[in-house]
Amino acid sequence: MWIPALLLAVHCAGADPAAPLQRFEQSQPHMGVMFHIVLFAPDERAALPAFGAAFERIRELNKRLSDYDPESELNRLCQLAPTTKPQPASEDLYEVLRRSEAWSRQTEGRFDATIGPLSKLWRQIRKTKTLPDPQVLTAARQAVGYRHVRLHAEPRSIELLQADMQLDLGGIAKGYAADAALAVLRERGLTHALVDGSGDLAVGDPPPGKEGWRIGVAPLQPNDPPSRYLSVKNCGVATSGDAWQYVEIDGVRYSHILDPQTGKGLTTHSSVTVVAPNGADADALASIVSVYGPVDGIAFATQQKDTAAMVVYLEQGKVRTAATPDFGDWETRANR
């Protein structure tokens, strides 16, 4: 199954033929992408309700975290900006913003959930293929800044301190949703499972008889087959890149991934793959490494616990690769 930045290749031929678990899979559209779930269960009676519960959890999160749905909890909060008092928040919205803020502080704003005004502007730019006037870009940037969000743990609530703020959780929400759906499956005793939100993955125990889930990492060009594979279990895997979403203006290629500090799309043609302890962290880190760039991004990823990352990028017409020292260990496992 090809997905925009990763090729998921689940091979079960080596599994014990006597194993009682069977492989099931389902897909549904959520959060603007296709979510795909693979799980191993004794029979359909166990598998089908589990699929329903997992997809329902993703649907619930979309109603809370979407920046497209005008009635989502996130957008209803943004409509109040600047808030006159702390606004009650669901556990999910609060947790995603708490984790986003932690990444924002650690990266000095290179990851920023308040980037919504710039995201909206660049969606329009990709349609018109015309750069905005500098004043328009400056106006959008004025409403961006993670310090404009204030979180209160008790009682759980959120304040937005700047006018015209728009939160955009696209750099973490799909990974968080994949984690949440995987947790639902685990609660039902289905630990051999994988949840894929179009390249943002949360993986549990591997397929029976296997050491891990075999993940093919897509190369820089979207239609080329993968030449590298990982083998992973009980972690998150994510990718970030501009193979599918970009715009060329006056000979410059701008990614859909934005640098919050400049307000512009990245111009380095790259694909980033991250393995992290969970899907939400992998999702955020893939964006962070992209914004930092190959050298500084890999240096940042190397400092993170239980994290591996690789960047494939184009430099002066040549494809180059940068990776954390332990990234090759994951590839070695996949080639056993």
List keywords for this structure.
336 residues; alpha+beta; T-fold; eight-stranded antiparallel β-sheet; three-stranded antiparallel β-sheet; 34% helix; 27% strand; globular; disordered N terminus; magnesium; lipoprotein; ApbE; flavoprotein; FAD:protein FMN transferase
Question: How are the SSEs ordered, and which strands pair?
Answer:
Layout: E1 6-8, E2 22-30, E3 33-41, H1 44-65, H2 73-78, E4 87-88, H3 91-107, H4 116-128, H5 134-142, E5 149-152, E6 157-160, H6 173-187, E7 193-197, E8 200-203, E9 213-217, E10 228-232, E11 235-241, E12 246-249, E13 252-255, E14 258-259, E15 264-265, E16 270-276, H7 279-292, H8 294-302, E17 308-315, E18 318-323, H9 327-334
Antiparallel strand pairs: 1-9, 2-3, 3-7, 4-6, 5-6, 7-8, 8-11, 9-10, 11-16, 12-13, 14-15, 16-17, 17-18
Helix pairs in contact: 1-6, 6-7, 7-8
Task: Describe, in plain words, how this protein is organized in 3D.
With 336 residues, this protein is of the alpha+beta class. The chain has a domain at 68-160: ApbE-like superfamily (T-fold), CATH 1.10.3980. Helix content is 34%, strand content 27%. The chain has helices spanning 44-65, 73-78, 91-107, 116-128, 134-142, 173-187, 279-292, 294-302, 327-334, and strands spanning 6-8, 22-30, 33-41, 87-88, 149-152, 157-160, 193-197, 200-203, 213-217, 228-232, 235-241, 246-249, 252-255, 258-259, 264-265, 270-276, 308-315, 318-323. The strands form five sheets. Strands 2-3-7-8-11-16-17-18 form an eight-stranded antiparallel beta sheet. It has a three-stranded antiparallel beta sheet with strand order 1-9-10. A three-stranded antiparallel beta sheet has the order 4-6-5, with helices on one face. A hairpin with a 2-residue loop joins strand 2 and strand 3 (33-41). Helix 1 (44-65) runs antiparallel to helix 6 (173-187) and helix 6 (173-187) runs antiparallel to helix 7 (279-292). It is globular.
